[in-house]
Write a structure and sequence with these properties.
With about 400 residues, the chain is of the alpha+beta class. The chain is built from nine helices and twelve strands. A five-stranded antiparallel β-sheet has the order 1-2-3-5-4. A five-stranded mixed β-sheet has the order 7-9-10-12-11. β2 and β3 form a beta hairpin. The two termini are about 70 Å apart. The chain binds adenosine-5'-diphosphate (ADP). Its EC number is 2.7.13.3.
Length: about 400
């Protein structure tokens, strides 16, 4: 059926709408006044019986084409539990009024269809039908009740559209995560081989020139950077899938931090790393994941600071349950507006976009690891002077 108008049948006020709209459709099609009235009366009778039994019926008025001839059709759908008999006066009379009347009982919905043929002389065609549909789309509300009803329908439409958009963006997000997961796995394998060959070449006992040794060192450094990015991408897809796993062990916090600072100092020869650790405590940590946290925070401290600046790693007792670890740099700092956003996935501040390479994944992964360890992470900063990144860990 080609739908022209649809009306929900909830209460008596809808009877007026059903009657007037049916009359209007019949009138617009050019049917005679007596046909308009007969058809509209039959539709109103059925609408009334449905409203007597339920408030969830739907009337659809439209057109049906059989070969070259069209019929005006009114279809009323309603709850299958409603049982009509000829003792329902409206049901009985409506059958007498229209030439074609069918009652179909379904499992989900029952349906009453009323049809009346449209004379060929009215020369109904596709264009006229489209114009008719437009006319009813733009039709002013019949009364205040109709206006509220129409507004309600448009609100429902907007909600449906928003839900659909949300559903689509979720699918796109899932596809993106899936892509990141597959791409990072695919890149990781050749990267591992490349790195292994570079290591082998670097440690060869055969004589190689200084220039070649220097080049091998550069290849090794860049492949390590690339590998870090690939591993971060893999972590992101693990976070999205909820499959970031931890192998926690009781560890001395001071020993762990001292070892991390030593390693990072050898990687960052242009910065001076210092520690100021208070009395040692044990923490339950996944060492590999916490190494990632330290290397990201200390690495960022160096990356966003000038050469020969200091980076201080300290601990403080927050309360009897938590220890705080802080990393202070003397770098460019972060504006107040960005202090929370930097922990979001792929977020990078405007001022570093053109000056420093990066993908904005490190702090997102870092904050997830800290939170999964039962801690909290935040940053304090003043632009041009430096930043301090803090994280807490529960004491054993
Ligand atoms: P990336 O460094 O790859 O951009 P991160 O997630 O590690 O990704 O950091 C997100 C953003 O936070 C950085 O792009 C930078 O704008 C800001 N940022 C992080 N650490 C610092 C820091 N120590 N000093 C100044 N800005 C920082």
């Amino acid at each position: 059926m080609i739908t022209v108008v649809s009306i929900t049948l909830e209460n008596e006020m809808d009877l007026v709408l059903a009657h007037k709209r049916t009359m209007k459709v019949a009138e617009k099609l050019g049917l005679t006044m007596s046909t308009q009235t007969t058809f509209a009366t039959a539709v109103s009778e059925i609408a009334r019986v449905v409203i007597d039994y339920s408030d969830s019926g739907v009337l659809t008025i439209g057109l049906e084409q059989q070969k070259t001839r069209y019929s005006l059709v009114a279809c009323v759908n309603f709850d299958p539990d409603i049982q009509f008999t000829n003792s329902d006066a409206g049901f009985y009379y409506a059958q007498k009024l229209v030439p074609e009347f069918t009652f179909t009982k379904g499992t989900e919905q029952s349906e009453i269809t009323m049809k009346i043929g449209i004379p060929r002389s009215l020369k109904l065609d596709k264009l006229k039908i489209t114009l008719l549909q437009r006319y009813f789309e733009d039709l002013e509300p019949l009364n205040a009740y109709d206006e509220i009803k129409q507004r309600n329908i448009s609100l429902h439409k907007i909600t449906d559209q928003q839900e659909e958009e949300l559903r689509r963006s979720k699918i796109i997000d899932e596809q993106k995560t899936e892509f990141i997961s597959i791409a990072s796995h695919e890149i990781k394998t050749p990267m591992t081989v490349l790195k292994a060959y570079t290591q082998v070449a670097k440690s060869t006992s055969e004589p190689i020139s200084d220039k070649l040794r220097d080049l091998l060192g550069k290849i090794d450094l860049q492949s390590t950077k690339l590998m870090t990015l690939v591993l971060q991408l893999m972590d992101i897809s693990k976070i999205e899938h909820g499959s970031l796993e931890y192998d926690r062990k009781r560890t001395s916090l001071n020993d762990f931090l001292t070892a991390q600072v030593q390693v990072m100092q050898s990687i960052l020869p242009h910065n001076e790393l210092s520690t100021n650790l208070c009395a040692d405590v044990d923490v339950m940590i996944d060492e590999l994941r916490m190494e990632q946290v330290c290397s990201n925070l200390i690495g960022n401290a160096a990356k966003y600071s000038g050469k020969n600046t200091n980076i201080r790693i300290f601990t403080a007792v927050l309360d009897h349950a938590y220890m705080t670890v802080g990393i202070t740099d003397q770098g460019m700092g972060i504006s107040e507006d960005n202090l929370n956003a930097i922990f979001n996935k792929f977020y990078r501040t405007e001022d570093v976009l053109k000056t420093h390479s990066g993908l904005g994944m490190g702090l997102y992964v870092t904050s997830k690891i800290i939170k999964d360890h039962g801690g909290r992470i935040w940053a304090e900063s003043s632009v041009g002077e430096g930043s301090t990144f803090f994280f807490t860990l529960p004491r054993v």
